[in-house]
Automatic annotation (TrEMBL):
The lineage of its organism: Bacteria, Bacillati, Actinomycetota, Actinomycetes, Nakamurellales. This is Uncharacterized protein.
């Protein structure tokens, strides 16, 4: 990016600011992806625990309720996770 009559030191400073800005954005995206993947794993662990606890209760209705809830959360959160991943990878 060259602007007519822009001093060389100002042009160099502008280039450094742009480079730093790009690096900050890239790092923020990477951190966002890492956080999102971690959150997805924690959510899956909690849902698995919910299902196992319901199975251990010996109550069919509790098992059905927990499985239905866990599947609902998995399916809806997957849409969210996929959309956020696409945004962060763009």
């Amino acid at each position: 990016m060259t602007v007519p009559d822009m001093p060389a030191d100002l042009e160099a400073a502008t280039a450094r600011v742009k480079e730093l800005s790009d690096r900050v954005i890239d790092q923020a995206k990477q951190n966002g992806l890492t956080w999102l993947e971690g959150y997805e794993k924690v959510l899956e662990s909690l849902l698995t625990l919910e299902e196992q606890a319901a199975k251990g209760s010996g109550l069919d209705w509790a098992n059905t309720l927990a499985s239905t809830h866990a599947n609902f959360v998995r399916e809806t959160s997957q849409v969210f996770f996929d959309a956020m991943s696409k945004q962060l990878k763009a």
